[in-house]
Amino acid sequence: TCFKNIEQIKPSHNLIFDLKRNTMKTYRYYHLQIPVNNERYDRKKALGFADDIRDLLIDSVRLRLRSDVNIGSCLSGGLDSSSIVAIINLLLAKKGVEREHIGKRQKTFTASYRRESDIDESFYARLMIKHTKADGHFIYPDSRALWNELTKLKFHQDEPFGSTSMFAQYKVTQLASGYVKVLLDGQGGDEIFAGYPGYDAVYLADRLRSMDLKGMIHFMLSRIKEHRDGKVFSAFFKGASYMLIPDHAKKYLLKQNVAGILKQIPQSKRFQERFKIVKNKFIFRLNQRLGYDETLYSLPQLLHYEDRNGMAHSLEARVPFIDHRLVELALRIPAVYKMYGGWRKYILRMAMRDLLPEPILWRKDKKGFITPEKKWLFGPGSPVLDMVKTRKIKQYSGYWIWRLFMVNTFTQSYG
């Protein structure tokens, strides 16, 4: 942790204190197996994987609807939270769960930004509410509320947090606490099904490493066609640079056209040397990278934030996507079924193909539960502006200035 002499137990570890010997030790009780199993896309196998995922996700949601108190769901309008809402609706329709603590209409809770059309997802949330006839509730976080409630948020989080998205989640749980005591959320879907844009480069490196140039080109061209996304080329350059000596790769690749790169790289001596050196590194295999983010990096941070935001309002957060059975299955599925035809999370979309409205099932934009952070940080009444002036910072962006502000405020509070 950020506090001296205070440490956390590692994931999948237990801690034992021996009262007789006055000693302490930890041991690992669970190992997540992540096989490396590249293969070419097969439609029949894709449908089989999708059905397995669907069955497990439905059962995971069903188990997490067991409660003696009222239950609701977060709903951002994205694929993961919408999938949970759709499955609850399915279970209610088929009488697969008791209605006592869910109600005739399930309750959903959404953060929205009326004046920020570029980040607001309320259109999709309302579409999902209409699709399931849920009882939708909305809250509208703003900068004034952020600065007024920041002291409370810091207290409940215990440590500095990476973005103002934590405040939006804090407000959603605050809203939900007026109606329910248990809240289902979609955390974990991006980490096991490859939902973040940053996975593009890892996937392309994976395809390049396995010499599946056809699969790599298919993904790139499909993404351009489906999404009009020219950034896939920069992802290719980054992915290819993983397979060369990084210091030289970008300069080399940027001077070439794509056809030339595809022709030259596999025969390059430098490529072959790099190939031998890094063939077992996790970053070049998408599934291994997902396992890393699932257990050590991305998801543990998000669960840290969510747990504390929930507890701040006496609310329990439950996350169906990280049921261990679903995680183990997802990480056994070859990467080509997670990123295919230009789509991230392809296999999850297939699994939910007849449960979600088409505009949500095949959404082309990825928001990532963002807030109008830049406006909040540099708008009227922001204490961040005082820090910028005091420290005479001339060049700054919202991404790192918030982190500097967090460290500064926690230092002032705790020394």
Keywords:
five-stranded parallel β-sheet, 415 residues, alpha/beta, single chain
Characterize the overall form.
globular
Unreliable residue runs: 245-259, 277-282
* β-sheet strand percentage: 5-15%
Major β-sheet strand ordering: 5-4-3-6-7
Overall average pLDDT: 86
| Number of helical segments with 4 or more residues | 20
Reported for the largest beta sheet, the result is:
5 strands, parallel
Number of strands: 7
- Structural class, please? alpha/beta
Distance between the termini: 14 Å
- Helix content, binned percent: 40-55%
Radius of gyration: 23 Å
Order of helices and strands: EEHEHEHEHHEHHHHHHHHHEHHHHHH
Outline the secondary-structure elements.
Elements: E1 13-18, E2 23-28, H1 43-63, E3 71-74, H2 79-93, E4 107-111, H3 122-132, E5 135-139, H4 143-157, H5 165-176, E6 182-184, H6 189-193, H7 199-209, H8 213-227, H9 231-242, H10 246-254, H11 258-264, H12 269-278, H13 286-295, H14 298-311, E7 316-318, H15 324-332, H16 346-351, H17 358-361, H18 373-378, H19 383-390, H20 398-414
Parallel strand pairs: 3-4, 3-6, 4-5, 6-7
Antiparallel strand pairs: 1-2
Write a structural description.
The protein has 415 residues and is of the alpha/beta class. Helices cover 52% and strands 8% of the residues. The protein has 20 helices and 7 strands. The chain has helices at residues 43-63, 79-93, 122-132, 143-157, 165-176, 189-193, 199-209, 213-227, 231-242, 246-254, 258-264, 269-278, 286-295, 298-311, 324-332, 346-351, 358-361, 373-378, 383-390, 398-414, and strands spanning 13-18, 23-28, 71-74, 107-111, 135-139, 182-184, 316-318. A 5-stranded parallel sheet has the order 5-4-3-6-7, sandwiched between helices. A two-stranded antiparallel sheet has the order 1-2. α1 (43-63) packs antiparallel against α15, α7 packs across α9 and α9 (231-242) packs across α10. It starts with 12 loop residues before the first strand and ends with a helix. Residues 245-259 and 277-282 have low confidence and may be disordered.
